[in-house]
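Protein 1 of 2
SEQ + STRUCT:
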Amino acid sequence: ERAKIAERNRRGKLFRARAGEIVYRLVPYGYRRIPRGPAGPAHLEIYEPEAVVVQRIFDDFVAGGYSMRRICRRLYEEGIPSPSGRPVWSIVCISGMLGNPTYKGRARYNRHQALPPTTGRKSTRLKLRPREEWVEIPVPAIISEDLFGAAQRVARNHTYFSPRRTQPD
């Protein structure tokens, strides 16, 4: 029974996502989820106070030339709380934001597949699905495609020119 319910739930969410509805509960920083109702299907709306912070993070990273660590420090010094509500931002959080395509207007669903736990593990593992199975849902964009692409190039350059890569290949 439990497996049957889980499969029906998965198929229902996949159907809704393919119809353009936001089906996940946790949404990226800078957005608010508007639930399904008389106004239409569930969708994301831009939450302006947080969207300004997202734009600033991208601008600082691309045009300002700041590192993720420096961006975290600047946000902390100005008293801007992190998405979890803590005063200190993490580099992982900033990195995730800089790589999240939702900010350029395309949310993704069905990217991962849950695998049963293997021996010695207590929780399930996630495996990336093939790109053809991903569902892209249009959402309002906070930043432009150009700025997102520039952030990806800067991140690649930071990785390539990192001091940790001083050893020859």
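Protein 2 of 2
SEQ + STRUCT:
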Amino acid sequence: LGAAGTEELLRFKREAEIMGQLSHPHVGTIHAADLVGKSPYLVQDLFSGGTLRDRTLSGDVSLAEAVKLTQQLADGLAHCHARGVIHRDLKPENVLFDEHGQAKLVDFGLALALEESQRLTVSGTVMGTPGYMAPEQALGKETDPRTDVYGLGGLLYFMLCGRAPFVGANVLAVLAQVIDSAPVPPSKSDPNVPSWLDAVCLKALAKAP
């Protein structure tokens, strides 16, 4: 981690604490940590299969595979939520694959325990990745497990369309779309996407949590 600032170190410690509570086939595992030395570190599994972004943009994700991977990630998120943890930063770079092609949810640096009374950011601060960020995040409002439902819909959208639900020239343009614009149905990008999968994806990406 190097010479981390106070908030960065707090987030790093929070990630270690949160990941230590989780044990699921589709969530990354932490094996050891040193959070007090000059160079704090975490020891996690090595996943050699690349990221969801790599896999999708190389054309290796079919419709059936997209559904299967979404189910795997949904199972992993359900495990997190059952333990009071919301991820808050679901994006293609935070999904890795092991040597067997199994999806693994990683990077809990922005994760939040639901019962926390002291947050690491003040109210109104936007935290997350704009293209996959839920409207309540973009508005700096309180988040809950439904925020991850939106993020999961964003991952499904990426697998179906090869891009985030919203793209723009800059961060502000993307955030404006996240708050006010409806996403283009995935079937407009790929006519092979069935209507039921369109509906699932768009329901997850609804503006209201």
